[in-house]
Design goal:
With 99 residues, the protein is an alpha+beta fold. It is 28% helix and 27% strand.
């Protein structure tokens, strides 16, 4: 019997944050960008595609937060609408968001 290729479903999440200490921004951005597939939507929001759950993504970022910060991980899917000056962002979303 041949092994069956396992397809791991990927979910797209919005990560949005507000940091009290801007010194934390570089580490949190590096950690978000360590995901294989990501797009920067705005100054403090990213979309990522991952097999992890929202809770796992949050847990992987929460050690960089303090009590005055906020961070949310929210599942994204189509339909979606928006505009970005960088056409690669729209293309990334079109490729990764599911219906």
């Amino acid at each position: 019997m041949q092994p069956v290729d396992m397809v791991i479903p990927l979910t797209v999440f919005l990560i949005t944050y507000d940091l009290n200490r801007e010194t934390v921004r570089p580490p949190i951005v590096r950690r978000i960008r360590s995901y294989e597939a990501w797009a920067r939507l705005s100054e403090s929001s990213y979309a990522i595609s991952t097999p992890q759950t929202a809770a796992q993504v949050y847990s992987g970022l929460s050690d960089l937060l303090d009590n005055n910060d906020s961070l949310f991980v929210i599942k994204l899917s189509n339909p979606a609408s928006g505009w970005a000056a960088d056409p690669d962002v729209k293309q990334w979303l079109d490729q990764h968001l599911t219906w």
